[in-house]
Amino acid sequence: MRIDRRTMLAGAAALGGATAAAAAARARDTDWSAVAEDVKAQMAWAWDLYRQHAWGKDEIKPVSGTFSSFPLKTRHLGLSLIEALDTLWVMGLDSRFAAGVGWVKQHFDADVDGEVSVFETSIRLLGGLLSAHHACGDPVLLAKARDLADRLLPAFATPTGMPYRFVNLKTGAVREPVTSPADIATYLPEWGMLSRLTGDPRYATVARKALVAVFARRSKIDLVATKIDVLTGEWRDRRATVGSYCDSFFEYLWDSWQLFGDAECKRMYEVCTAAILEHQQVWKDGSLWFADVDFETGAVVATEQDELASFYGGLLGQGGAMKQGAAYTESWAKVQARFGVLPEGYDYATAMPTQRTNALRPELADAAFTLWLIDRDPRWRRIGLAHFDAMKRWNKARYGYTDLADVTATPKRQADHCPGYWWSEQMKYYYLLFADTPRFDYRRNYLSTEGNVLLGFRQPAEEGRTRKSEGRE
After folding, report:
1. Average pLDDT estimate for 384-412
2. What is the pTM of this model?
3. How many Å apart are CA 48 and CA 344, to the nearest integer?
4. Which domain holds residue 163?
5. Residue 284 CA, distance from chain mean position
6. Which of 59, 182, 267, 305 has the most CB atoms lying inside 10 A of its own CB?
7. What SS3 state is found at 298?
8. How many domains does the chain fold into?
9. Residue 69 domain flag
């Protein structure tokens, strides 16, 4: 019998609903500490396989057991290893953390004649080194972070203060002046912390200047577009979005207030958010979405949603728009319930995926954790649990966790790649969401866009004092 497309989708929706109902039932009776131990066990299992098959390499390929390089094309910098460090530490996987730190101290060297993305290298490698230093205080990690930042600094030498997209780590040669708000302005938390730790103000100064430069060029209706020329300051695109190319610009406006108390950054965040809520907010069938619009007129230009934007509900909640933040996160949770794993692209107008892949993304888990920190509503834990359960069911391969080539296939079709952010982001979000660990300050903390903890770790001596003061000993 030939099954038509409509029947197939109806069946998939019914299956998704049944799966969602089963997950909700499980969540109601969940032993959250047991789930946290499962997360920890999955992390240890994947780390041990990485150590056996790709130690010191950038990213493991979990299906084949081989590896790939990133952000350099032909050299490895230990990306996944560095991204994993503070996750290992907060989970109490101390011997594994120590082995990773040992590798970094002996082998990590940024003096490489190769071109990297300034943005990716900063949030992943620089952020990873700083968060590992926050965990253990080793001065070698800080020194390596500073050396790496020094090698990225030439990218900021532009007439506008907005950095080029690429820089050579050895020569300082730069390339690609047409770039995005996210590439330009996702630096101040890491670079500001580096300035605080080293006493050198240069890092915070250039990062903040770049952030302000994007905001200063917003349109008359307070929106920014996806592409701008850092040499002239002229916009090269008209599309405003809360997804990729702009997402972490908004995030780091708020974060710079949260981490450093920068009131001007808070004001800039509020201006941008008010414009987004006014011009991009769309309600359809009881779900909240954010349309892509013309940044000067507010006219809708696209209804496709980027999975990367699913983090945005958490940011809205942090900034005080809890109603919209919760609604947007619930919108994405419905899509997760339907497909099991979020597709990379989804069109809210047609209720269909526009990209069927999933790059082992953490953004919905990020939003759930962020909202849970605000109100401790158990629904955010349930969304996080569904995300974790789906990952274990569909993404687990022989040598670790892999991304997916098609989330709509039955069974879902795996690709062969574990991105470095997997180690830093969702595994940490899951654990912190479920564990109530004394190694983390749940009231005063900061996690970067890459999930790196730059504020909030408690040392083992503090753990004991905290448990005693709370009557746990």
Report:
1. 98
2. 0.92
3. 29
4. 153-302+437-467
5. 27
6. 305
7. coil
8. 1
9. no
